[in-house]
Amino acid sequence: MTFDPSRPDLTIGIVGAGIMGRGIAQVAAEAGIRVLIADMRPEAITEARNFCADMIRRKAAKGALTPRLLRLLLRGSAGRAPAPRSPTRILPTAAW
Fold first, then answer.
1. pTM, entire model
2. Phi/psi of residue 19, nearest 5 degrees
3. Pairing label, strands 34-38, 11-15
4. What tens digit of pLDDT does each residue of 32-79 get?
5. How far is 44 from 32, CA to CA, in rounded Å?
6. Which of 68, 39, 67, 37 is nearest to 52 (CA)?
7. Could you read off the pLDDT of 7-29 as tens digits, one per residue?
8. Which structural domains are found in the chain, ordered by start?
9. How far apart are CA 60 and CA 55, in angstroms?
10. With b meaning 16 or more CB within 10 Å and e meaning fewer, what string describes 8-46?
């Protein structure tokens, strides 16, 4: 079996929503990968989601992302299969 990074159903699971986990989540979401994240502290997941959204907004403000891509990343509908319902989902599905 070969790894295909462009698969439309590619999902990454991250354990820990701290500095490293949220950074990995942000990069993966920007690359169009569905991200699931878990943490012992439920509020850490909310903090990570807010952090990622803020960082994505900053990139858009600097012109690194188009307004359309920003909306897709934050809204989570960019052409991939819907992510499974999960209380630990950090960012909606995004692809471009």
1. 0.69
2. -55, -50
3. parallel
4. 788 888 999 989 988 998 888 888 889 888 988 888 778 777 775 343
5. 22
6. 37
7. 888 889 999 999 999 999 988 88
8. 11-91 (3.40.50.720)
9. 9
10. eebeeebeebeeebbeebbebbbebbbbbbbbeeeebbe
